[in-house]
């Protein structure tokens, strides 16, 4: 456990993605099974047991330490788990039985919530200060070290030489401590046979179309469809299993029983999750009502009916279609849909055009709610996971927008003086977030309440009135223009930035880069 | 010693600092005074402008190199040597903080006061180890006077640095160190750990490091960083004053990985706030366990606590049965 804790500690302090990957690679290379498998589960958020309450942790410490000293220490350190980890008095002989992470997980999984504190005490005696910190963060589910599940898998891929996509494809068929995975990655065994499990297929993503790009593209090579203002989902049915995956590969099926109920057998489909009333796409905020609830009640299902607008087909029965061209896959999708029409599923229509100018007019003229712009896809493009440059473009209209990451929050004034309503957001540069602007508006009162709560729960540091939050929430910021500025660390300043959307669904690692913002400069 | 005059009748705090009335001298005065005893060479203890200064030869050498003429008339006193100043017996004994650092032992009218200055208890190859001395009143520092401060063994922290160097061999490892003491201690610890490569120094660290060498503390090969090409600094250790590590100066280093050697690195948010990527908990101050053990060891009836988080240590000492109080002395800095 001390070794895993040292990894977490190093990850916490290492800002750059590549540095984090290297730290994890080294850990996987030098740690035996099943320890590293449980570590992988912890890093990817797959480790589940009843969480300990902060009050239980405090009670443990109070039994061992003068409460006055604990109080002053907590005031100074500002974080309960860290305070307790540092102040915990070393017991004689305590170091004799240092627990492994595997052992800790095994015992915690078997324990009830009330038993957990009794388990913790001897472990706290045995571990070093960093080990105690990691243990307490783990059991209180407050471990935030800036590593996404995808980054952990990336480290596995780079360490083993096995492609990330291959790992992602079988990921959902695996369970901690991932013995079969490590056997495969280290070449002892073939890839784990996951059989008929409805696993996630890593998505193919589009590049934003920039002004310079279009001149080099031949309109005859591309097909166009509308870009819908919902969230990207993957519907997977295999054997008896039905899964609705978000773009990051999280299973969100429980929140959308209405979609799962209509999911056709034995296919993998790619589409946009929307709230639809009849033929009309409801505003994104309506979809947000659904995304907010892990398990919806009947009223919510009735008032905010979900639908998926399909635009691609990755698998049809046993047949993997990803090696076919987009045009061929589209034919298959249309043919299949003609045979298997379903309530709450429809096809995203193609937008015929002959020239870019014509298409641009269509794009700017489309005032329908729910349309963000256009998607351009090369007719001959194979389905390739990741974000290859060239085959697919997204061509948004209207205000400029940027997907940023919430970094700091501050309370507002007047009516909002009790709300964290002023947000500083950042974009990526060399694997680190750089603040690029501040916004105070664009969200509903309900969204503000939720963001405020989120900020309070996810503060990692306070700078006087300013809270630094864990980099996690993607804010899609709309703005009129962007200019160079010497007053800002990023070197750019946005004009009239406002929160366009809160992308609860989007992994923060996929937010935009500063470079993308600089290209929008006028 | 209960018949002797209570120490508080002859040692007091004044705006200039701790003052021994019968002796007519100040200890580590913050304002220029006619007569000063200086515990060690750090800038917040050894200030320029005093008329006469009594200190160990090591501290005097440091003050001369820092202040030249402004250091005042310097009178060296070897560790353990006793002199009489206006009827007050004065001795300097090792404090283990930095080279030349001393505790001040004062005997007056049968009562003994020990002023710890800054001190630590663990072994440091660059200075003489702390000597505990029984007394009636112990005036202790409390920089790390909270029980969350327990410094790990130095070797583990040095190993962290060397491990990072092997994991990120293309990055220049720049370690923030205080110019006096920490810089030389980190060098000595690296050598003990078997690291024999040249270590590169920021210009602000060179003078004192040479001084240590001249005073007989071997620190292995060191080079001014400016003499190396940018590329040559990849995979190398560069020591620099803490403020420089994240300042414009560091832009001239290749892909710098910022480390910091300080007791404050124990608290993650402090390390994060300073932009530190590799916190190294290496301190020249006593940690909580050392502070409390030392109070027990010197067996003073009364303890005055200064420079730091006094309240927790006063609370602890009071519970242990000592008369304890916090002493507010202006001017000491949190930096170590």
Kindly describe this structure:
- The complex is a heterodimer of chains A (522) and B (336).
- With 522 residues, chain A is of the alpha+beta class.
- Chain A has three domains: 2-139, Orthogonal Bundle (DNA ligase i, domain 1); 207-393, D-amino Acid Aminotransferase, Chain A, domain 1, CATH 3.30.470.30; 400-519, OB fold (Dihydrolipoamide Acetyltransferase, E2P), CATH 2.40.50.140.
- Chain A is 36% helix and 24% strand.
- In chain A, the strands form four sheets. In chain A, strands 3, 4, 5, 6, 7, 8 and 9 form a seven-stranded mixed sheet that branches.
- In chain A, β7 and β8 form a beta hairpin.
- The longest helix of chain A is centred in the first third of the chain and has 14 residues, at 17-30.
- The mean pLDDT of chain B is 93.
- Chain B has helices spanning 57-67, 154-167, 182-192, 203-214, 242-245, 268-273, 288-298, 310-319; strands at residues 11-14, 17-20, 25-27, 35-37, 52-55, 73-76, 82-85, 88-94, 102-108, 111-115, 137-142, 173-176, 199-201, 222-224, 237-240, 257-261, 278-280, 302-308, 323-326.
- In chain B, the strands form three sheets. In chain B, strands 7-8-9-10-11-18-19 form a seven-stranded mixed sheet, covered by helices on one side. Chain B has a six-stranded mixed sheet with strand order 1-2-3-4-5-6.
- Chain B is 24% helix and 25% strand.
- Chain B is built from eight helices and 19 strands.
- Chain B has two domains: 7-148 and 285-326, Metallo-beta-lactamase, Chain A (4-Layer Sandwich), CATH 3.60.15.10; 154-280, 3-Layer(aba) Sandwich (Rossmann fold).
- Chain B is an alpha/beta fold and 336 residues long.
- Chains A and B meet through α2, α5, α6 and β15 of A and α6 and α8 of B.
Considering the chains and any ligands shown, give keywords for the structure.
heterodimer; A: 522 residues; alpha+beta; DNA ligase i, domain 1; D-amino Acid Aminotransferase, Chain A, domain 1; OB fold (Dihydrolipoamide Acetyltransferase, E2P); 3 domains; seven-stranded mixed beta sheet; seven-stranded antiparallel beta sheet; 20 helices; 20 strands; B: 336 residues; alpha/beta; Metallo-beta-lactamase, Chain A; Rossmann fold; 2 domains; six-stranded mixed beta sheet; 8 helices; 19 strands; 24% helix
